[in-house]
Design goal:
Length: about 400
């Protein structure tokens, strides 16, 4: 129901310089321009020496930026983080029992594939609701463990990796797509790490990064899955790791324009101080939003525990009694209306909570977002909520 403008709190005077707060694909880095692309690598075979070297350079630069431990392999694979993580599960799981941590949409997807597609027998599932974590202490070191580092749809991250312990027999397989380059991660405690270009680096969608520890490689070379493996999942050849995947020979044809784009993102990352600079920018975005949340009387963090709150996929819940009294369908309608007003004002796009998550807001705080834009956004959130609140 529309209402007269005079009944609405005054519009804030400052808009965010960039209204893109989507959790994926995410905002491009500051200074990005399509004019910075060249056609140097377009229209040539990606297997030609110069262009394969360009792909390999993106791998090497990404490994260096993340601080990947010596002896690890990193490759570019099809189908974004989803493809990378599915490759890992289908290729590595089976020899040991598996502990699966499930607390949001994507971790539920991985659990569903393990249960319904791979149909593994010795699996333990540990579940928690949105905004919470399962009991990490229940994970056993002799078993493989499958988990997300940061719940992109719940705004909950693991606070650290101490719960994995120092000596593990099982593999630690981690979907870290909305965590890498934004949070400190003890990579050496993991065995598989996956991510996509479209998150913290603000790259193009469709490409995944798959990092394997020496222990993961040993598993690949000693274990043959009992199920058929599609071509795009095959990481071995004649019982040995297909090293070409990790040297720039991608399984299928990549977009060289997207490869150029991730190089631009890596160039920008160097200008802000590399990994430490990227993490600092994400933490500054969290701090800006937290300052507002801590003073608000109508909204709060979805995760109650501060040490588990994401600084990238920042998820909020509305706590005002008028909102909480509504049925879920009407809550979602209210969120849609508020987000619609913000989009009409060119203030914020795509900040409603993920469709399977509780009704609320989700604001991306990855490194490509400027904290000044978070500061400019939050008065508009108050404006949109006030406009909804005073409706008949």
């Amino acid at each position: 129901m529309s209402i007269p403008q005079g009944d609405v709190a005054a519009r804030p005077s400052v808009r965010p310089a960039d209204p893109r707060f989507s959790s994926g694909p995410c905002k491009k880095h500051p200074g990005w321009s399509a004019g910075k692309f060249s056609d140097t690598h377009l229209g040539f075979s990606h297997r030609a020496p110069a262009h394969k070297a360009h792909i390999k350079s993106a791998i090497d630069r990404s490994a260096a930026l993340l601080g990947l431990p010596e002896g690890w392999r990193l490759g570019i694979v099809p189908a974004s983080d989803t493809g990378a993580f599915e490759m890992a599960m289908w290729s590595l799981l089976g020899p040991r029992g598996v502990d699966v941590l499930r607390w949001e949409s994507f971790s539920s997807d991985w659990a569903g594939d393990i249960e319904n597609q791979l149909r593994l027998q010795d699996v333990r599932y540990f579940q928690a609701g949105y905004g919470e974590l399962p009991d990490l202490a229940t994970v056993q070191p002799e078993r493989d463990v499958v988990f997300v580092y940061n719940g992109t749809t719940s705004g909950v991250r693991v606070p650290n990796l101490d719960w994995l312990g120092e000596d593990r027999d099982g593999l630690a397989i981690c979907d870290a797509t909305s965590a890498v380059f934004a949070m400190p991660i003890e990579i050496d405690k993991l065995d598989v790490v996956t991510w996509s270009w479209q998150k913290v680096l603000g790259g193009e969608a469709g490409f995944g990064m798959l990092a394997l520890s020496p222990r993961a490689v040993a598993r690949l070379e000693s274990h043959t899955p009992s199920w058929p493996m599609p071509k795009i999942f095959r990481l071995t050849k004649n019982g040995k790791l297909n090293e070409g995947i990790f040297q720039g020979s991608t399984i299928n044809t990549p977009s060289m324009l997207a490869v150029d784009d991730v190089h631009l993102a890596l160039d920008w990352a160097e200008t802000v101080g590399g990994l430490d600079g990227l993490i600092a920018r994400s933490e500054a975005n969290y701090a800006a939003l937290d300052r507002w949340v801590s003073q608000s009387n109508w909204i709060d963090w979805l995760p109650a525990r501060e040490d588990t709150r994401s600084n990238t996929s920042m998820c909020l819940k509305i706590t005002h009694s008028k909102f909480t009294a509504l049925a879920e369908e009407k809550q979602r309608a209210a969120i849609k209306q508020m987000c619609g007003w913000l989009a009409e004002e060119n203030v914020a796009y795509d900040i409603a909570a993920y469709r399977a998550a509780p009704p609320g807001l989700r604001i991306w705080g990855g490194a490509t977002v400027d904290a000044t834009d978070i500061d400019a956004l939050v008065p508009w959130l108050d404006w949109a909520f006030d406009r909804w609140l005073i409706q008949d």
